[in-house]
């Protein structure tokens, strides 16, 4: 009887351990799907972009299976906290305000803020004084939005659910300028027909994203955060990151 109970206990333990191991082998990644070239949805409905490729490379290093979940930007942190997914890989800038709600990995890329405007603009100064009275747009709930609202109080600030919508309004003449992450604006200017309307204006604004871009996880998921940190270091060291970078940009964004 005791032997039978022992075998039963061992079987239950093995089943529990196997179940727990199976659960840890899948990591759900939340991303926006509306922020090219970092994350977007292609013609076949698949999530693609720099963020997606980096996430897949990290999951390969961690030896876990990744699944991807598209989530509107404004609700992406609440969705993480409600356990809709396990990590946010969506070009999220690390900020002190966000660190009150989530934990971040080390940065996996750095991007300054930049201003773009129509090629025939009369604006020559992108300081708050230079953009006084001008209509400036960007995506809502971003570091660029916070930066504009804090420093450009004499400008008319227009916020959009996605960066693509802000870009479309600039191309249509409904904005005087846009402030956003430089690499996203670069993609639009260089690779879209609408982007031919416009140009970079002034110097980079490096204080828009001073802490870099990281992967967000729930604060209690420290093991996952450390695993992601290790994987980031590994893909940089073995050249995987460089190959992904070169696929999207002719310059180093790390």
Q: Keywords for this structure?
A:
D-Maltodextrin-Binding Protein, domain 2, five-stranded mixed sheet, 254 residues, 9 helices, disordered N terminus, alpha/beta, 13 strands
Structure write-up:
With 254 residues, the protein is an alpha/beta fold. It folds into two domains: 23-110 and 211-248, D-Maltodextrin-Binding Protein, domain 2, CATH 3.40.190.10; 113-205, 3-Layer(aba) Sandwich (D-Maltodextrin-Binding Protein, domain 2). It is 39% helix and 24% strand. The chain has nine helices and 13 strands. It has helices at 2-24, 50-62, 76-81, 96-99, 143-151, 163-171, 182-191, 222-237, 240-248, and strands spanning 26-31, 34-35, 39-41, 47-48, 65-70, 87-93, 103-104, 113-118, 135-139, 156-160, 177-181, 198-205, 213-217. The strands form three sheets. It has a five-stranded mixed sheet. A five-stranded mixed sheet has the order 10-9-11-8-12, with helices on both faces. Strands 2-3-4 form a three-stranded antiparallel sheet, with helices on one face. A hairpin with a 3-residue loop joins strand 2 and strand 3 (39-41). Helix 2 (50-62) packs across helix 8 (222-237) and helix 2 (50-62) packs antiparallel against helix 9 (240-248). The longest helix has 23 residues, at 2-24. The chain is globular. The relative contact order is 0.17. The model is unreliable at 1-23 (pLDDT under 50).
Structural class: alpha/beta
Q: Which quaternary structure do these chains form? A: single chain
- The run of helices and strands is HEEEEHEHEHEEEHEHEHEEHH
Bulk shape: globular
Q: List segments where confidence is low: pLDDT < 50 over at least 5 consecutive residues.
A: 1-23
User: DSSP helix count?
Assistant: 9
The number of distinct structural domains comes to 2
Rg calc: 22 Å
Q: What share of residues are in beta strands? A: 15-25%
CATH topology of the largest domain: D-Maltodextrin-Binding Protein, domain 2
Mean pLDDT figure: 92
Name the strands of the widest sheet in spatial order.
5-1-6-13-7
Within CATH, the superfamily of the largest domain carries the name Periplasmic binding protein-like II
Residues in helices, as a percent range: 25-40%
What is the number of E strands?
13
User: What is the first-to-last residue Cα distance?
Assistant: 62 Å
């Amino acid at each position: 009887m005791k032997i039978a109970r022992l075998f039963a206990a061992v079987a239950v333990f093995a089943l529990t351990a196997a179940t727990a191991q199976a659960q840890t082998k899948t990591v759900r990644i939340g991303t926006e799907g509306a922020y090219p070239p970092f994350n977007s949805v292609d013609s076949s409905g698949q999530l693609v972009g720099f963020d997606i490729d980096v996430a897949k490379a990290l999951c390969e290093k961690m030896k876990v299976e990744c699944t991807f979940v598209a989530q509107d930007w404004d609700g992406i942190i609440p969705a993480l906290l409600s356990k809709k997914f396990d990590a946010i890989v969506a070009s999220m800038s690390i900020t002190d305000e966000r660190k009150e709600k989530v934990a971040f990995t080390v940065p996996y890329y750095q991007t300054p803020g930049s201003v773009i405007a129509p090629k025939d603009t009369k604006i020559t100064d992108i300081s708050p004084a230079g953009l006084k009275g001008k209509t400036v747009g960007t995506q809502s709930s971003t570091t660029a939005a916070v930066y504009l609202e804090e420093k450009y109080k004499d400008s008319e600030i227009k916020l959009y659910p996605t960066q693509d919508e802000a870009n479309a309004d600039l191309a249509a003449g409904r904005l005087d300028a846009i402030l956003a992450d430089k690499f996203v604006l670069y993609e639009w200017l260089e690779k879209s027909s609408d982007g031919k309307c416009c140009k970079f204006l002034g110097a980079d604004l490096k204080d828009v994203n001073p802490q870099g871009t990281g992967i967000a996880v729930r604060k209690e998921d420290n093991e996952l955060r450390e695993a992601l940190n290790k994987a980031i270091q590994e893909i940089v060291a073995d050249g995987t990151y460089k190959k992904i970078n070169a696929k999207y940009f002719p310059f180093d964004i790390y």
